Amino acid sequence: MIIIIILIVILLLLTYYIKYNNKELFENKKYYDCIISINIHHKPKFLLLQLDNIKEHVKCNYAVILNCNEYMYNECKNMKFSENIYINNEVINKQRYKGTLLKGHYSNIQFALNNFNFKYFIICSGRNFFDNIMTIDELNKVIKLGQYTGPFYGMYDKNNINWHWPLLIKTKLSMFFLEKNKNLYNSPHEGLLFSYNSCLKIVNFLENNEDIKINLFNYNASVEEFALQTIIINFNESFYYIGNGCCTEEVIGKNTDTDIKFMYKVKEDWYE
């Protein structure tokens, strides 16, 4: 009888541990190969063109999360989207060269983790269009190649302070890592690719360092070009890059065995 009671107690403890430490086993979350995060602030007509372009070129199990400004949120609520297009209810009015762009994508990371299981997370600009077909095999190939993986794309060099570094090194995030003798890393955010585990580490770090998070979101500089990248690398993950830069505004041409890209940016007046 005592043995039976002990076994029951062990079973209950095991059930409790699994339930509260492996929630995904009990949560029926929808799975996607990749999540595409977009900060949108342009006209509804342009958004529909962008979503049609994604549908035409992305040939894997994907979802799109839209982070809207107030105008586009109200517009989107009256629009019909396919079931894999999600509107983030956190409305953020974004500005260039402000931390609000980063805040929008961070909110989408949280939305994705709370609602889905997924393999990859991809950050897009509201002006990104795809030019090559993207499959899960092609994405896996990017990872295998280590294409533009941090820290090889760009990093802070105290002996050659250029780009946006004079401003970015003054963020609390930069000071946190530099004081620990760790470095800072960068890439264009348009086309940034990283894993589910990277998303977990990003959220865990920023939620446990509220002062750093608030400082980033209110900072007057392009923090989206280095913040997530820096956190990812300093927590032993990698980021990858599948775009053609932040300013080129040109199509990218066909992929090769050693150079895989999927998206480009249209000109700012393209949708006027």
TrEMBL record:
Name of this chain's protein: Nucleotide-diphospho-sugar transferase domain-containing protein
Lineage of the organism: unclassified sequences, metagenomes, organismal metagenomes
